[in-house]
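Model the whole thing, not chain by chain.
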Amino acid sequence: MKSKSYTDVMSRRNEIMKQALGLDYSEFEGKGISFSYEDMMTKAGYSLEEIMEIQSETNVGNTPLIELKNLTSAARALAEPGKGARIFIKDEASNPSGSFKARRASVSCYYAKKNGYNGVVAATSGNYGAAVASQANMRNLKSIIVQELYDSHGVGQPEILEKGRKCEAYGAEVLQLTVGPELFYTFLLVLEETGFFNASLYTPFGIAGIETLGYEIVEEVRTRCSRDPDAVVITHAGGGNLTGTARGLIKAGSSDTRIIGASVDLSGLHMASDSDFNRKSFTTGHTGFGVPFTTWPDRADVPRNAARSLRYMDRYVTISQGEVFYITEALAQLEGLERGPAGNTSLTAAFAIAQEMNEDQVIVVQETEYTGAGKHVTAQLTFARENGIEIRRGNPSDQVPGKNIIIPENPGLISTTEMDMDNLRKSYIRNSLKHYNITADELSKEEIEFLAEEINKPDTFVRNILQEIK
Amino acid sequence: MNNKIIPAGSWVQIEATILAPAERADHLPEETKKCPLMLLTKGYLKKASSLGEEVTVTTIIGRDIKGKLVAVNPAYLHTFGRPIPELLTVGQELRDMISGGLKS
């Protein structure tokens, strides 16, 4: 019998993954630090047409694109004359499991079934768990979801409690853990014991599944507005949502659309901290995932992450928790759409960014998510208050994550904070060198070209950064 | 300790220690590293037992998992919380702004 010790299981990681993915990533590896991203996406993934077919089999996608006329009016009331783009939102909550994650799960479950796996496993505290469980049911597969849910006092984050309930409602086995990155160890053990498929968020399947979302947005905006979307705002965490949507936009030929990532600012809170765990009111779409995954995507649960946001992202903004709660309330009150708060991160950013854009332009928020007990503004703010977080109206710029949540005194105070994209690109390059234990001087021409593709900049930009790093 | 016997086949929740503090990963914040990594899950109780006993359950998909029996058919108790006074007026404020065309 194989040892189940932490070190032994972690050292079997590659072997377990190969078995659980049915994919040999080594064939995409190039020289040194490089690998062929497009080869991986083409050979291991599916074409857009195939994905559409797979998703139509399980009723995923083709969600409504809703014009938010009242929120647009509110943005225009705050903007300079002639400013205030039309705001649209893709109502992804109408997918079978209530979020865009059904798109990602649909392809993983299709692949798992086709390749003879009896079940699927996903490590997720988010909507992806329910998406995997729901899609697994349609494909007659078993499912196991591994969640990080409790602090050491046994107190569960309300939003994750709800997601766990939903997984159980679909008949998944739900393994609920206390705080800590060793969730990955449990996940590996489960994969090894069951021989199930690793329905990771970061395989080519998990990313290709979102391309249809970008594609549908372009088709719909062209029909209704006779133009391409000028900007698409995407809630950014692990990078899959952004990467998949952007690839779909490009496949639809909308290559001038600005790709804007948006995360909730949770700076100062440690993601592996037992005591910080229940002091945050957002469990995803925040900087605690967004920044590390942007600057080092290969921290994921697969050998090469198919979600590589720096390849596509033009701009990355942050927003505060209180601002997202305000806009979630506004979406319900002005537009009659009661949706989960985390998915409204990008809407909050779009509300501010629309005010910079011209009235004839179109800005698209590419998701909503379902709402329910635990996963709601009132649930999160009640929980925050019980945990000693101060909640008040005021200026969101006074926010301190983990200490207070400031609901904007008026909507004119909603604004985005720019992340320095060049700093993120530099960090990515620094992390690559560190990970492969290589110096700037040792990089070959091919490796420099690879880095340039990774950050979507010319070779000269990479060379300048390498000079700086030296 | 509750000595009441829980019949075999009951839908229960168990708790297991996955990693003791000394076995946990390096580079964890102190407050996390001092706690064990715990697992909670649910299944059908294999043999009649009392709360607090080490038991085996069969999960909904048929896997056997061992752990300490902690609850019988625990309820889903997460709620919508209370209405938030700071948000109650947001809708009206926005409507006033739109209809008045006011800049704030």
